[in-house]
């Protein structure tokens, strides 16, 4: 086992640090910005069905559901296709409406999650075309999907999903760009910019991983916290949900992820001088709004930990702790901004003496309802 961990103390840490390679592997042979090439071999026969889709329904659970939420933004922004992101467990019991022009995406690391499998079977029985985004080659979901794309992140052993998440975002982004290009809903310029920027992501994730020591120090300060709130907007809203899920599953600290603007409709009541609030506040189209949300938390004496874009001059004047990540396109930022949150949950869990690779009550793949 020590050999399999490759010198890391836990599988989770190894997998966090593998992300630059995993994202690179996911793009290998598929994307070349130089040649303007974006080819997804697993999406052929039904590619036109996807390009002409009237609606995309995404079904998934847990972290994979968070990837689906980011993908909703991709498909809507780039392809102008309406998207619904569904918890597989809810979708399957709801007699959902599936129309002729709908396509379904199932996202799953393991490809064995019972609820996701059942949701696909239901959608298939209603005539839907299913695209699978799985990590495990030959898994049940990959086999029953009509077509799809593997994430090629390599085996993920830690129960807390890390590299599968960033690889899912990579694949989903490539699919959305490929569809948008064919549909003509993205300008050539933006398409090319995003291909170049996608290729730069592994190096940016590598840089974000260098924050490890700084994040360890922040973790020391908050290891005994009883609650955490994670807030983000736009592309960073699903990142807030993912940060909170990571923390609760491995450290057993209660954590809530929320869209930052929704805070004033309830969770703001929780904020006092004891409450750590993690803002994912990178420079994007909602930046100014997020700055106002930070001020609202400060006014109530919350302790702000902010993930910001390198060089941000404003937020460091407000936040107790600032974590600077490299700049990238806002659509790709989740792949970078999630890194410090994975590290934060990892270090806090280790400091609390938790079993990070096999947290209590959890299984790597949930093959029961
Ligand atoms: C993630 O850290 C979790 N352990 C869990 O939410 C997981 O993402 C979920 O069970 C879905 O699994 P899948 O991707 O293998 O379908």
UniProtKB/TrEMBL annotation:
Keywords: Aminotransferase, Cytoplasm, Glutamine amidotransferase, Repeat, Transferase
GO BP terms: amino sugar biosynthetic process; carbohydrate metabolic process; fructose 6-phosphate metabolic process; protein N-linked glycosylation; UDP-N-acetylglucosamine metabolic process
Subcellular location: Cytoplasm
MF-aspect GO terms: carbohydrate derivative binding; glutamine-fructose-6-phosphate transaminase (isomerizing) activity
GO cellular component: cytosol
EC number in record: 2.6.1.16
Keyword Transferase found: yes
Catalytic residues in the record: 364 (for fru-6p isomerization activity)
Domain of life: Bacteria
Domain SIS: 46-185, 218-359
Catalysed reactions listed for this entry: D-fructose 6-phosphate + L-glutamine = D-glucosamine 6-phosphate + L-glutamate
Function text: Catalyzes the first step in hexosamine metabolism, converting fructose-6P into glucosamine-6P using glutamine as a nitrogen source.
Subunit relationships: Homodimer.
Protein name as it appears in the record: Glutamine--fructose-6-phosphate aminotransferase [isomerizing]
Organism name: Fulvivirga sediminis
């Amino acid at each position: 086992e020590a050999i399999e961990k490759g010198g890391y103390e836990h599988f989770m840490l190894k997998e966090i640090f593998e992300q630059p390679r995993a994202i690179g592997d996911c793009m290998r042979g598929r994307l070349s910005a130089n040649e303007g090439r974006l080819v997804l071999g697993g999406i052929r026969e039904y590619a036109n069905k996807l390009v002409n889709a009237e609606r995309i329904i995404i079904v998934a659970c847990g972290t994979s559901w968070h990837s689906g939420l980011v993908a909703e933004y991709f498909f809507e922004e780039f392809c102008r296709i309406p998207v619904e992101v569904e918890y597989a467990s809810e979708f399957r019991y709801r007699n959902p409406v599936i129309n002729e022009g709908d396509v379904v995406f199932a996202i799953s690391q393991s490809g064995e999650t019972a609820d996701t499998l059942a949701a696909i079977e239901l959608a298939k029985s209603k005539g839907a075309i299913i695209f699978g985004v799985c990590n495990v080659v030959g898994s049940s979901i990959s086999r029953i999907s009509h077509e799809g794309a593997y994430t090629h992140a390599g085996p993920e052993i830690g129960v807390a999903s890390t590299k599968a998440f960033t690889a899912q975002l990579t694949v989903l982004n490539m699919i959305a760009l490929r569809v948008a290009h064919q549909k003509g809903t993205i300008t050539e310029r933006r398409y090319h910019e995003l291909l170049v920027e996608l290729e730069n992501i592994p190096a940016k994730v590598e840089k974000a991983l260098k924050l490890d020591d700084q994040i360890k120090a922040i973790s020391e300060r908050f290891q005994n916290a009883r609650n955490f709130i994670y807030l983000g907007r736009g592309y960073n809203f699903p990142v807030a949900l993912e940060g909170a899920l990571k923390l609760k599953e491995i450290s057993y600290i209660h954590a809530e992820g929320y869209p930052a603007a929704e805070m004033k409709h309830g969770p703001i009541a929780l904020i006092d001088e004891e409450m750590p609030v993690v803002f994912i506040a990178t420079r994007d189209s909602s930046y100014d709004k997020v700055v106002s949300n930070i001020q609202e938390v400060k006014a109530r004496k919350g302790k702000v930990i902010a993930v910001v874009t390198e060089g941000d001059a404003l937020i460091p004047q407000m936040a107790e702790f600032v974590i600077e990540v490299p700049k990238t396109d806002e659509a790709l930022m989740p792949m970078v901004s999630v890194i410090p949150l994975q590290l934060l949950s990892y270090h806090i869990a280790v400091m609390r003496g938790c079993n990070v690779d096999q947290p209590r009550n959890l299984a790597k793949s949930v093959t029961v309802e």
